[in-house]
Amino acid sequence: MAHEFFMHRCIERAKETQGRVGNGALVWSVLVREGKIIAEAHHRAFGLPHAERSLLDGIEQKISSSDILYVNMEPCCHYGKTPPCTDIIIEKGIKHVVYGMRDPDQRVAGKGIELLKAAGIEAVGPVLLPECERLNRGFVSVRNKGRPWITLKRAQMRDGTTANTGGARLMITSQEQNVWSHTFLRSTHDAILVGVRTVTTDDPVLDARFSSFDYAQDDTQIRYQPSRIVLDPHLRIPMRAKVVSDSHTDRTMIVTSHVANEKCKEALRMRGVRVLEVAMDSDQLDWKDLWRQLITPSNDYHGLTSILVEGGAKTWDIFKKAGMVDEEVILTRCDPS
Ligand code: AOF
Ligand code: ZN
Predict the structure, then answer these.
(1) Dist. CA 74–CA 324, nearest whole Å
(2) Which of 11, 101, 233, 307 is most buried (CB neighbours < 10 A)?
(3) Which tens digit of pLDDT belongs to each residue from 276-334?
(4) Is the CB of 24 under 6 A from ligand 1?
(5) Which ligand is closest in space to the CA of residue 74?
(6) In a domain, 88, yes or no
(7) Which residue in 12, 34, 40, 52 is the catalytic one?
């Protein structure tokens, strides 16, 4: 029971790191002495020390043999951008580790747990496995399938219609539904994706402005803003569209083809937009190429692990036909109008 209690804490707080760790895992760690948390730390951002290392590096008290280290993912045992967490756990004299799930990264994949056990450390887990896997569904998807976790979101009237026939913007969801979807969908994915037609009709901002997440006790900003991805094979996006002209253009990625207008590409790049040139055969996306570009860090881009596809109808179809859907959420207007 106690193990679940502290693991739950790791999971809840690890959610705060959404959007900050690039293509990495959301990880939080707590150190418990005689039933009380005496220290906690997380993997703050891409390239920075991991949760367990941050925690153990920062602790001044001597570790006692009954202290328990909780972490929602198996401690790593590889040299990546930072040294192995298993090293510092052993070095500092931790004798009990409770982990939430195995790390699916091939460099770890159970070897972290084996290493701890071989060093005489008790390693207990998995604990709250479904919750831990749900939290890191993006990271697991990238490591196991080579593509981000994809959620499709649709808003529809009670009769199933989703748009005005004339192509004008149609507001379907209530304010309450907007708060829900900004809090539980937009704020829990690394990026929101739409087709260029949605941009030309709705001119959306694609942010999480109605999110009810705010600030944690330690001032960690929980509300982060997801990246914005526009599928635009022929580069039809108007230069006045908000996603390429507001003050957050660095959060925008346009997915286009190699043959689209070079001048437009350059103009967008000058504004700070990331333009991804993806192989396409008569509008058929080369998915492998797209996923590779989105999940792979390069220079100041750290990759992503989850995408919320918001529309419109053509874009949903493309994703559904290709089988690129992990979860589907349909919001239906509740009042009779
Ligand atoms: C942990 N604790 O807090 C995290 C882990 O490139 P690096 O060095 O940041 O390593 C990334 C890998 O480390 C990632 O793929 C995953 O296997 C693990 N993440 N492990 O023990 C942490 N974030
Ligand atoms: Zn680590």
Answers:
(1) 28
(2) 307
(3) 999 988 768 899 999 999 999 999 999 999 999 998 889 999 999 999 999 999 988 87
(4) yes
(5) 1
(6) yes
(7) 52
In terms of domains, do 121 and 157 share one?
no
Domain that holds residue 321: 146-332
**Which of 135, 165, 198 is the endpoint of a domain?**
135
Residue from 21, 71, 103, 140 whose mutation best tests the ligand 1 pocket (most atoms within 8 A of CB): 103
> pTM to 2 decimals?
0.92
For 28, the token pair is 């939080």
Tell me: the pLDDT tens digits for 73-90? 999 999 999 999 999 999
Check which CATH number belongs to the domain holding 109 and give it. 3.40.140.10
Which domain-ending residue is among 135, 155, 182? 135
CB 111 less than 6 A from any atom of ligand 1: no
Q: How far apart are CA 80 and CA 318, in angstroms?
A: 36
Q: Are 52 and 29 in contact (CB under 8 A)?
A: yes
**Ligand that lies nearest to the alpha carbon of residue 27, given by its number in the listed order:** 1
243 and 162 fall within a common domain: yes
Per residue in 250-271, pLDDT (tens digit) is 999 999 999 999 999 999 999 9
Whether 133 sits among the annotated catalytic residues: the reply is: no
CA-to-CA dists, residue 188 to 38, 144, 210, 234, 334, angstroms: 28, 20, 13, 30, 24
In tens, the pLDDT along 103-147 reads 999 999 999 999 999 999 999 999 999 999 999 999 999 999 999
Is 298 among the domain residues? Answer: yes
What CATH number is associated with residue 218?
3.40.430.10
Whether residue 132 has its Cβ less than 6 Å from ligand 1 = no
Nearest in space to 135 (alpha carbons), one of 26, 16, 250: 26
Our measurement of the distance from residue 157's CA atom to the centroid of its chain's CA atoms, rounded to an integer in Å, reads 29
